[in-house]
Structure formats: C-alpha cells, structure tokens
Amino acid sequence: MKSIKKYILAVLMLGVCSAVMTSCKDEADIFDRSAALRLNDAQNNAIETLTKNGGKWEFQYFANGDEEGYVFVMTFHSDGTVDISTKNSWQTTFATEQSSWEVLTDYGIDLSFISYNSLFHRFSDPTGDVDSGYNAGEGHLGDYEFKIMKISDDNIILRGKKRNIEMRMRRLPADTDDEAYFEALDAFAKEMFSDKMPTQLLTLKDGSRYLVSDGNTRIVSILPEGGDAVSQTESRNLILLPDGFRFMEPFKNADGSVSVQTFLLAEDGTLVCEDDGESKFSSLELSTLLTDAKAKWRMDKTTLGGKFATIQEAITAGCKSSLKRNFDYFQLQCDNTRETLPYSLFFKNGSSNGNFFGTIEAEGADKVKFNYGEELDANAKTHLERVSSFQDMLNLLKSGAYTLSSESALLPLTVKVTSDANPADYFYVVKQ
To answer: I need a labelling partner for 395 at 20 to 30 A (CA). Which of 88, 162, 324, 425 fits?
Structure first.
C-alpha cells in the first residue's frame, strides 16, 4: 500500500515539475517576442474576432452620464466597412448606414470608426446635433474611438478614449435581421416600462429592497424602501436591451457589499442580475399595486367569470330598464382626500357616476380583501335602490379573500382577481 502511495506522489510531483517548467518556458516564449509583435498579434486577433461568424454585434453605447444608453447593431466586414443600424429617441425610425472602421495600436488596441456615420457619430460630433441640449461645440460629449479592454469570441468590453465610459458588445447570430432586432427591442420596452406604472422593485441578494422610478425615461431614481426621498435617492442612466437592461455605472447597497449592473430576463419573467445571479428586478407586489393610493384599476367587463359575469349582466339590464342608461364599467380606485374609507368601487353609468366607499386590505403579496359599501354617495344610493344587482356585486366582493395574479412579473398592467372561495368567480382589472 505504501509503495502505491509513493508511486502516486512521485507522479504528482513529476506533473508539478513539468507544469512549472512548461509555465516558465511559456512565459519565456512570450517575452522573447517584442512588444510590437505582441501588439500586432492582439490587433489581428481583434480584427478576426470582430469579423468572424458573420461579424454581427450588439453595441451598447453611452454618450455621457446624463442621458440614456443607445443600442446599435453593427456588422463588421473584412474590407474595413461596417454596417451600423439603430432606432432610438434621436433616430425615431429604423435606419442603416455604412462607414469604415479600423483596429489601431496605441498603447494597446483601439476600435475606431474612422469615416463619418450620421447615426453613430451624432453623439460625438460637436456640430452634429443642434437640438441635443448641449452647448455649442459639445455634441453629446460622446466617443467614437474605444480602447478594447477585454475580448472573447462573443463579448467585448471597451472604454471610450475621451470619456472613459465602459461600453459592451455582444455577438449576435449572423442571420439576425437588424430591423427585426429593433422591433423586438421596442416590444420589450412596452413590456418593461410604462408611465402607468412608474415605480418598480429592485431586490438585492442581501434582501435589501429599492423602489425604482421613471424607467420609461431610461434615467431612473432609486430609493431604499422606506427611505428619505430627498437624501437617499440615487440616479442611474441605463440602456435597454431586448432581454434586459444595464446601468451605465453599477448600483451598490448601503455598505457596498452588493454591486449590480446588468439584468437579464429569467424564466419566471423577472430580470435577474448577471453579476451575482440572485438580485432581481420586478414589479411591486400585486397587493401593493391594487392598494396604491393613486391607482385606478378598471374592471374589464368582457372577461368576467362565474357569478361576476351573471351579476354584471343583471346590472347592465337593470340600468337599461330602470334608469334608461347604458352601464359602462366598475373601477377600483382611491380618493385620498377622504380621511376615512378612502377606497371606492366607482362606477360609470352613462352620464352618471357613483362611489361605494370602503376598504381594500392587503393580505400578503398576492391577496386582498374588499369591504365596499360602508358609505356611498348620492348617485350610488340611487342606483342601489333602483337596481338591486348592485348589492349582489357588493356582497360578492365582500364574501372573502381574493388572490391576485398577472402574466407579467415586470409590468402587470392587467391583474386577474380570483375568489378563494370559488375560483370560477373572477374578474380582470386594467391599470388606468
């Protein structure tokens, strides 16, 4: 047994010695070559990487720290030309334009776009955007030459030579249709951000939670949940991608132990941080959204189930026969000027509106209880007296807890409200 152990040890030691000798030889080989030759190899490698496998890349570009990032799709050709496509807030329709590129050696290797491209150079041309809001001679303060910091077959990290802002490139399949790419980006933008739901949730892997507002502008405000808006709000500009987003600069928690920057779409519909695999970006809890003091959620009368459908039909018929009006809709909303019972089941019946006041109580992240009808305004009283089915609606809503669900984990503008007592009884509400 001892002889076997000695043999294994001898083999391992021989392997270590061989590895050390090989390592030393490799290092000697490297440094036997001149810096110029090593730089030339790096230059050739960059050119080959940019042009191989179709040469198509997603370029994530930030001009400065005060405006959103912009996406370009670039196709690099071995003849020194590059096709650049984009659609953004400055170029509002899809466009493609060809120009020239080079990989230069200058204390490292640089990617330079050497002939003018109106789609790309507008962000670095001092005279190229008179409506940009910057001072004369500034353009957007952007770069058009970039130091290649790290390069692999599918990802490249660069830094602008003037502004030192980090840019990233991701390889795209060679058969990617540029226009279809930006159509997908537009579609994802609509699923990601909306003025109707300006606040979303960032949950870091340490459990700390942050309210993220104004994502539709791509320049967000980030506030610790329950924090002071004046002293604790941070701003970040971001670039939106077809499968997520990236902050220009990382965002860190209070003690700096968690740092996040890139979020990509996960199977559950949330965005998960690429940097740590745990931090998430999502909507606020559905119960929080439904009880928001500023929210208005309209009941979609075309998608009612069970007793809700039956009662809605009776209300519609009763309003037509007793009040000579066409019933329009119910809406869950809040009148935060009221000191008590601020929530209401609002209804619109032709030219007549009314409110059944009460409460909505959140029970966990996805459950609520309604208690409408404790007070009512004059119009609601009249409708209740003339059409008895209004009381049936109030009774059904007060009959127990309701579970909330949505197909979107990022932007739940439509929420299904399902009775726990009888799942066949449900309705959908749409954010107004």
So the answer is: 324
d(CA 161, CA 146) in angstroms, rounded, equals 5
Q: Are the C-beta atoms of residues 424 and 406 closer than 8 Å to each other? A: no
CATH number, domain with residue 116: 2.40.128
Give mean pLDDT in consecutive 10-residue pieces for the chain, a chain of 432 residues.
34 35 44 76 96 98 96 98 97 97 93 96 77 66 96 98 96 98 97 96 98 97 97 98 98 96 97 97 98 94 97 97 96 91 96 96 97 96 97 98 98 98 98 96
Is 265 in contact with 252 (CB distance < 8 Å)? no
Same domain, 276 and 295: no
Residue 220 is part of which domain span? 193-282
Ramachandran class of 317: left when φ > 0, alpha when ψ lies in -120 to 50, beta otherwise: alpha
Chain segment 51-88, per-residue pLDDT in tens:
999 999 999 999 999 999 999 999 999 999 999 999 99
pLDDT tens digit string along 283-295?
999 999 999 988 8
Q: Do residues 114 and 132 touch, judged by C-beta distance below 8 A?
A: no
Which residues make beta-bridge pairs with 329? 348
- Short-list 216, 178, 183, 175, CA closest to 197: 216
Cβ-proximal residues to 91 (8 Å cutoff; 6+ apart), any chain: 119
**Residues 345, 358 contacting (CB under 8 angstroms):** yes
Residues 275 and 358 in one domain: no
Q: Is residue 123 part of a domain?
A: yes
* Dist CA 277 CA 283 (whole Å): 18
Secondary structure of residue 189 in the 3-state scheme: helix
408 and 344, same structural domain?
A: yes
CA 63, CA 81: separation in Å to the nearest integer? 23
Q: Is residue 39 part of a domain?
A: no
Q: Is residue 209 in some structural domain? A: yes
Domain count, the chain: 3
Tell me the helices (H) and strands (E) count for the chain, helix number first. 8, 24
Residue pair 142/164 in contact by the 8 Å Cβ criterion: no
CA 242/CA 263 separation, integer angstroms: 11
306 lies in the same domain as 427: yes
Residue 36 lies in a domain: no
Strand partners, 70: 61
